Amino acid sequence: MARRGSRTAGAAASKTPVSRLRRIALGVAGLAAFIALWKCAFVFAWAPPGTLPDPFSIPAALVAEYTSGHLLPALGSSLIHYVWGLAVGTVAGFTVGLLAATSPAFDDVHHVLARILRPIPPLAWVVFAIAWFQVSHAGAAFVISIGVFWVNYFATAAGVAGVDPRFYELARAFGHGGFVARVTTVTLPGAAPGILSGMRTGVGQAWMTLIAAELLGVPGMGQQMNSAAGVGAYDAVVVYMLAISLIYSLSDGAFALIQNRVLRWRP
Amino acid sequence: MSGNDLLTIQGLHFAYPDIETPVFSDIDLSIADGEFVALVGGSGVGKSTLLRNVAGVIAPSGGQLSIAPAASRGSRDRAFVFQDTRLLPWRRIDANIDYGLTGLGLSKKQRRERIDEVLELTDMSAYRRRWPHAISGGQAQRIGLARALAVHPRLLLMDEPFSAVDALTRSRLQDELLTIWRRIGMAVLFVTHDIEEATYLADRVIVMRGAPAAIVRRETIACTRPRDRTAADFRALARDIADSL
Question: TM segments (chain A) (predicted)?
Answer without folding.
Answer: 24-47, 79-100, 112-133, 139-163, 237-258
